[in-house]
Amino acid sequence: MEAQATAIVLGAGAGSRLGDGPPKAFREVAGQAILVRAVRAAAASSCVTSIVVTVPPGSEAEAEALLDGIVAPVTVVAGGTTRQESVRAALAWVPAMSRIVAVHDAARCLVDPALFDRVVAAVAEGADGAVPIVLVTDTVKRVEGDRLVGTVDRQDLRLVQTPQAFRREVLVAAHERALAEGREDASDDALLVEETAVVRTVEGDPANVKITTPADLGAVSTGPTGA
Description:
The chain has helices at residues 34-44, 60-66, 83-91, 113-124, 168-180, 189-193, 214-222; strands at residues 5-10, 28-29, 32-33, 48-55, 74-78, 100-105, 129-135, 140-144, 147-152, 158-160, 164-167, 199-203. By secondary structure, the protein is α/β, with parallel strands linked by helices. The chain has a single domain (5-222), classed as Spore Coat Polysaccharide Biosynthesis Protein SpsA, Chain A (Alpha-Beta Complex), CATH 3.90.550. The strands form three sheets. Strands 1, 4, 5, 6, 7, 10, 11 and 12 form an eight-stranded mixed beta sheet that branches. A two-stranded antiparallel sheet has the order 2-3. A hairpin with a 2-residue loop joins strand 8 and strand 9 (147-152).
């Protein structure tokens, strides 16, 4: 039987680095909202059976209207002021039968649905968590102010993407531990889980870019993937 999972799609960020305008998840790429593209990709995965979406508080109705018609069951909830708060809010709505959870940033709206399948399969095969990685192709320098002070060996360095999949109980425990310790600044879920559990890597996708700045938005809107 193929592994199944609930996908959490995080779209509650304001996207302040994109400049004035609606929240990031509601910005459009080639005529379609970032949030819609990301959720459609999750729904197109063969392993995702339900989706929980976080959006800025007060935007739930707008998101539900945009996502109407998505094949997989979609639940829209208000996110928090931090990424961790949003994940915790979403975890409360994950169906009880879901043993694997895949967490994805809506800002990576060009994700290939097959990437959900790869990370979920790795967890189903025994890992506590699984993340997609890509090679670091640029030279990495260490700096102090505006002065170069060294070159970092990139042989063991990788760039980490989402979706990231985890056994549900492992992810919940990691977030509860961070909350108890007063930590609220994790940049991804693997950072919390890898402290006490085994997180495997799978092949990522260089095209799975994250929209952060206006330049990113322009590039994906006009490039081959956004055409």
